[in-house]
Amino acid sequence: MNFKKTATTIEQQLEKLQTRGMIFENGEKAMENLLDIGYFRLGFYWFPFECTYPRKDNRNHKLKPDTKFEFIIQLYYFDFDLRNILLRYISRIEINFRTQLIYMVSNKYCDNPFWYVDKAIIDESYINDKKYKAALTDTKKEEVIKRDLRNHHDHEYAPAWKTIEYLSFGNVIQLYDNLKDGGLKAKIAKSYGIQSPNQFSNYINTIRRLRNYCAHGKVLFDINFPEAISTSGPAGNLGARKTMLSGAYMVLQYILGRISLNRTTDMDRALYRAFEIIEYEEVKAIIRDNSGIDFSNLKK
């Protein structure tokens, strides 16, 4: 079998980047970075500095004049900080939404603690979904659920307020989406200041996608969502930002603000600080242009 690509040493990687126009102020430190982070991963961060950017096909990989390796490292670490900061505040939304769903549906059907597997309450197609069934089975591995089932031999599942705590964010959102009671869905949406359940579903699924990008270490500053965010709604008119990080951030700010304005302020300030420690204006320009966010304006 003939492979066109072969593994390269750190020294060879450094030499390759130099032939493409990369400037190294500290070659030894650069080799340390390449060994620590990896040539392939860092490639996502020097891509915006290529002459043919944003073209992904037929690239010549030549870098723009005066491109420093330090630009790439600072862009990488900003993206790293960006993911960690966003995850912290997305977690606040995830917990709040999980709590709202459990509370409102459980009190609506107070005589049925197992409403999440009741075909009269949740769409039957979702209850029969193999992935959902597998997720419910996995909850039974948790010690809290094991104890509940030992104490209640006549029940196949634990009550909603226990089981749903161990479901993924995606499963919890799908429970909401598959609620048969449209009025109840609207009530939950209105608790976040949103009149339409469809609008709320679009927003909360946007936050889920953003969370998954962050959790899986995806490149974030130039994210392009495969599914568009609703362009009009209480988060604002997104326009061209409907697939950009800036659009998702507007949704995140809005939903988080309905839960805690203080946390929204904290998030903005944390991102402002992460942006302001960047030394190079060339890197800041790349972030602003690709994310659609001017992080310098977040501290107000």
**What is the average per-residue confidence, as pLDDT, rounded to a whole number?**
93
Instruction: Please count the beta strands (DSSP E, at least 2 residues each).
Output: 0
What is the element string, with H for helices and E for strands?
HHHHHHHHHHHHHH
* 3D shape: elongated
Largest sheet: none
Number of helices: 14
pLDDT < 50 runs, ≥5 residues:
none
What structural class do the secondary elements suggest?
mainly alpha
Rg estimate, integer Å: 23 Å
In terms of DSSP E residues, the strand content is under 5%
- Distance from N terminus to C terminus (CA atoms, Å) equals 59 Å
Provide the number of structural domains. 2
The helix fraction, in percent, is 55-70%
What does this protein structure show overall?
The protein has 300 residues and is mainly alpha-helical. The chain folds into 2 domains: 10-67, no CATH class; 77-297, no CATH class. It has 14 helices and no strands. Helix 4 (69-108) crosses helix 12 (245-259) and helix 11 (197-215) packs across helix 12 (245-259). The termini are far apart.
